[in-house]
Description:
Elements lengths: L24 H4 L2 H10 L12 E3 L22 H5 L11 H20 L8 H9 L6 H33 L6 H20 L2 E3 L1 H24 L1 H28 L12 H7 L7 H22 L46
Antiparallel strand pairs: 1-2
Helix pairs in contact: 4-9, 6-7, 6-8, 6-9, 8-9, 9-11
Amino acid sequence: MLSTVIRPKFRLSTPLVSRYFSISSSILNNERILQGYRDSLSTLPPPKRNKLVKLRKELPPPEEYISEPTFQHPIYDVNEMHQIKTDHREATTMSDSIALLGIKILRTTFDFFTNYREPKNLQDNIEIAKSSNRMTPEKWLTRFIILESVAGIPGSVAGFLRHLHSMRMLRRDKAFIETLYDEAYNERMHLLTFMQLAEPGLIARSLLIAGQGVFCNIFFMFYLVSPKICHRFVGYLEEEAVHTYTRCLEDLKLGLLPGLNDLKVPDIAKNYWHMKDDCTMEDLINYVRADEAKHREVNHTFANLNLSGDKCDRNPFALEIKDVEKEQPSKTLKNHKAKGWERSDLIL
């Protein structure tokens, strides 16, 4: 069976995120060091032209009729948001390995089409920032838009299939559907927010159409066969998303992205995340990263549960159990576990 633990010699012993470095807080919180990096970037060669998206000169005018979000976003604690870190759950089963392989293929393809280079260390990051191939606001928004156009698919497909299964079997779904649709809605709000800041060109739109058509159908077929593989896949996908937004935040702190923090945060984002009027792009990216971290936790947890049959577990994120001795999942970042909750730790 796919859930059977395999022998160590078949394990993917190298974590997917092991090749990604994170800048230490001692550097990010040292203003003297940060200013030195900013000064070294005072004269830069022109960046390579980005043909996928272009920045909007100003935010689109507000629409006349705007409905309230169907799924209200929970209020995040700011300190908990800033504690989010890149993390990785090792593949220990054959199904985990299949999911991880799928993510490696997807990530490689994604990097190729968005002309992205992953830095090996801080010095390499600085060298990239000094080159014509550096990450610009346009290139970051390209990655964000393509990433979010894909990330919104799994929740909607999984929710749709579980909805049909619930009606077909004439029984309740134990609250998975709501969380999955909420996740898809949340990812779409990310996309709509970034679409207010940049407009994709013809090539980008073609990539989105082709990517959505291929990925949606593949995910649909895999979810019919093994929901666990699919949720582990999404967990690994969200690990990549957390890393992407973490690196963007680090580049902002290092002063490698002049211009990005000057962009105005769209009203759709302020309304959805309950943000203050004087919020910045750094604040916005922190909120988006927190959402991705929550999806990482949720999907890694779902992959550890019984998801079908008479012994199907309940969704532990749908109902917060209080006044119990051991910690339980929440709808916010409280008791957050980046690698997901093990089934034995949950009250089901």
